């Protein structure tokens, strides 16, 4: 069996997302580019995560052709491929149906920078992508457009959250922080208060400091 390392990481990340309550059942999907850049591993479709073995995890090429794996790739493969083809700096994609991010998307409320970790992801941490059918090429194109050259996350209207990273840990951390921010923003609204945001000039300053290698 080839690429055991990335296939195992796909299973570990999926189980972690399930444990954290970010996905239910067989929803959500994770993909990871191999270190040599030749293949992409992605969660299979309709298989309970706790039943997965590395042999079952599909490997595909950049056109979506399946090269290995006992199971079929996630139906949301076109979205993952569109990102992997468009962003060479991205090696991992995490898509969840995390509830607070989904609520923000459904009410059309952009995620404000209302927590410290969100500063890392810039002044508009997770733009909302207008609804397109899951698995469609249209959704893939819309996600790539919304992510742009540097974006780390987008909220899919009426659907869920998608994050990217240089590795799986970075993409998974982004998922956790965006979902935490969405929860705090929504609880602020429920509590009847305004959602305060960290001022843009402070965000820019923090990003400059991090870019220079210093700590805040
Ligand atoms: Zn989905």
Number of domains: 1
Low-confidence stretches: none
**What is the average of the pLDDT values?**
94
Based on CA inertia axes, which overall geometry fits?
globular
Give, in order, the helices and strands: HEEEEHEHEHEEHH
The distinct bound ligands, ions and cofactors come out as: zinc ion
The helix content, as a percent range, equals 25-40%
- What would CATH call the class? Alpha Beta
Evaluate the radius of gyration: 17 Å
What class, by secondary structure content?
Answer: alpha+beta
Major sheet: arrangement of strands: 4-3-2-1-5-8-7-6
Distance between the termini: 45 Å
Largest sheet: 8 strands, mixed
Quaternary state of this entry equals single chain
Please name the fourth-level CATH homologous superfamily: Class II aldolase/adducin N-terminal domain
Which architecture per CATH? 3-Layer(aba) Sandwich
Would you kindly provide a written description of the structure presented here, covering whatever features stand out?
With 216 residues, this protein is of the alpha+beta class. The protein contains 6 helices and 8 strands; from the N terminus they run H-E-E-E-E-H-E-H-E-H-E-E-H-H. It has an 8-stranded mixed sheet, with helices on both faces. Helix 2 runs parallel beside helix 4 and helix 3 crosses helix 5. 43% of the residues are buried. The mean pLDDT is 94. Bound molecules: zinc ion. The site of zinc ion (ZN) has 6 residues, from loops.
Task: Summarize it.
It contains six helices and eight strands, in the order αββββαβαβαββαα. The protein has 216 residues and is of the alpha+beta class. An eight-stranded mixed β-sheet has the order 4-3-2-1-5-8-7-6, with helices on both faces.
């Amino acid at each position: 069996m080839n690429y055991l390392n990335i296939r195992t990481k796909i299973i570990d990340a999926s189980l972690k997302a399930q444990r954290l309550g970010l996905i239910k059942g067989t929803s959500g999907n994770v993909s990871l580019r191999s270190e040599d850049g030749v293949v992409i591993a992605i969660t299979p479709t309709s298989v309970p995560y706790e039943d997965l073995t590395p042999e079952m995890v599909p490997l595909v090429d950049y056109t979506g052709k399946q090269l290995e794996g006992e199971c079929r790739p996630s139906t949301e493969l076109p979205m993952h491929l569109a990102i992997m083809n468009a962003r060479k700096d991205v090696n991992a994609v995490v898509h969840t149906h995390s509830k607070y991010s989904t609520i923000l998307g459904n009410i059309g409320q952009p995620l404000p920078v209302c927590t410290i970790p969100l500063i890392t992801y810039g002044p508009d941490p997770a733009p909302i992508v207008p609804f397109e059918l899951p698995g469609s090429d249209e959704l893939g194109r819309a996600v790539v457009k919304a992510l742009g050259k540097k974006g780390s996350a987008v909220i899919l209207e009426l659907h869920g959250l998608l994050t990217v990273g240089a590795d799986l840990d970075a993409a998974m951390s982004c998922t956790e922080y965006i979902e935490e921010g969405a929860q705090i923003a929504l609880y602020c609204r429920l509590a009847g208060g305004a959602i305060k945001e960290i001022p843009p000039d402070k965000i820019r300053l923090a990003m400059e400091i991090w870019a220079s290698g210093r700590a805040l």
